[in-house]
Every structure is written in structure tokens, then in C-alpha cells.
């Protein structure tokens, strides 16, 4: 039997986007703290065949928030209705409360000084090889996904998603964030 602490370090999900024998996507999330050498990391990963996206942890309230964004991105990919050019940019776009791709990438993408990231790997085949390549290139501490809420910047999230204090008192931040993400296509946030 596998050690429970090992199982919680990563999350692997199978998305079946088309039951008629079409696209099958697998996704894995990995939380990395105290990241070193951030600047060339994304290019370095692509050079070694690891297509992934690195998300800024302080803007994430839970893994469910990321799962919602990934699900929407995979569905848009299948329907050929993506707003962005790649499924990874589509994930970032879906995390944002606005319809601005540039704003989404600035708020949720990795910056020069960011040390805590959530790596998202999606592929149609077995992603274990990609994750092994990711781990060999990343210099940082791989952490339990449950620790992601300790890295959340609630003040910035409340400001970004324009939450009112009455809304926060009645519910929780995660529900408000996910509601805004899900309704982004229908509502315009001022």
C-alpha cells in the first residue's frame, strides 16, 4: 500500500472530453515552494519537452478552483472555441474574473520574484514521464497540495474578484471565486 503523504503530493485527474472515442486528457497538479531560477524556467521546461503552465499560488484558493479552470479549458479545446492560443493560456484565462487575456496572464502567471507555484501538466498520454522531466528541471521543494491554502493571498483575491464584505461573511472565498469563474461568460465585472 502506498504512503498517504506521497499520494497527497500530486493530483492526477483523467478528463474524458469526448466519450465517442475522441480526446482523452490527463492532468496533474504539483505544488512547488521556494522555487529557484524562476526566470528561464518555462523556456527550459519547453526545451526538455515538458509542456506545462506555472500558476502563481497566492491567487489560488484551492485545487478545485484550478480543476474548474482546467475543465473549462479542455472543453473549449474539444469544441474548438478557445479564447487563447493554447490550452495552458486558456487555463489562466479561465482563472481570471476578467475577459482580458493580458490581465489574466499578469495576475496568475509566474513573475520574476515568485517562489511558490502550482505546475499544471496536461497530456493525452501517460503524464508520469512529463512530470519526471518537470521534477528534474525544477529547483524547489515539492509540497503537499493541501498546503496551497497557506500560500493564498486572501486580500489580493478579494480585491481581484471584487468581493464585498457582506458576501465574504455569508459564504466563503472559494465559493465566490468559483462562481465568478463559472459565470464569467455571462456577467461583465465592472
From TrEMBL:
Transmembrane segments: none annotated. Belongs to the CGI121/TPRKB family. It is found in: Nucleus. Its main location: nucleus. The lineage of its organism: Eukaryota, Metazoa, Ecdysozoa, Arthropoda, Crustacea. One of its GO terms (biological process) is tRNA threonylcarbamoyladenosine modification. It comes from the Eukaryota. InterPro entries: CGI121/TPRKB (IPR013926), CGI121/TPRKB_sf (IPR036504). This is EKC/KEOPS complex subunit CGI121. Keywords: Nucleus, tRNA processing.
